[in-house]
Specification:
The longest helix has 17 residues, at 89-105. Strands 1-2-6 form a three-stranded mixed β-sheet, sandwiched between helices. The protein has a three-stranded antiparallel β-sheet with strand order 3-4-5, covered by helices on one side. The protein starts with a helix and ends in a 7-residue tail after the last helix. It contains five helices and six strands. It has helices spanning 2-7, 24-38, 48-52, 89-105, 109-117; strands at residues 13-18, 42-47, 61-64, 68-74, 80-86, 107-108. Helix content is 42%, strand content 26%. The chain is α+β, with helices and mostly antiparallel strands.
Length: 124
Amino acid sequence: MLQIATGQGRRFARVRVVSLPLNDYSRFGVWCAQFTNEAGEDIRYLVRSEADSLSLPDYDYWLFDSSKLVRMHFDDDDRFLGGEVIEDPHEIVQANYWRDAAWHKAVRRDDFATQQAVGRVQRP
């Protein structure tokens, strides 16, 4: 699906905020991302200490076509409870700002994976 959609000019991109050292789940996510990147998605990584300086929200969200916002809800054990569609224009604009700010500081997946393999993370 990603190859077809990106071949038609659609863009798929995300920033994952991670803590260091990576836990097993995050390391698995970095490994898996190589395959969606090969299919056309652009996944980047932002270390939480860098994210803190951006005043990003303390929740996960998806932003579709810069105009549809879905806020993710998890329980205290990080089990996914569902997504909430947010229609407030102010919140959507704020989410676009957060996305752009995070994107600016994030590291491409392949670079991040290489840096983690040698035990260091540097900004590009």
